[in-house]
Write a structure and sequence with these properties.
The chain is mainly alpha-helical.
Amino acid sequence: MANQSEIRYLTPITVEVKKDKYCRFQRSGIKHIDYKNPDFLMKFINEQGKLLPRRLTGTSLKFQRKIGTAVKRARHLAILPYQADLLK
């Protein structure tokens, strides 16, 4: 049997590099989130129509709350659907 130091791999071991999460609103200086822009709000909604969590989008808590209220307003005015299959 080969020692552990003699083990060789055919392909190099891949090391995943994490991207730095950042709040896109603070970086670009956006202060108001418009509920009338469904294309922008679709970036924060998954295929089932649920809001994406902060850990995936990287937004700060302040803007995550504003996104939630904007999506709720857009749903109330029928700009966005409450429930949908394969939105995107």
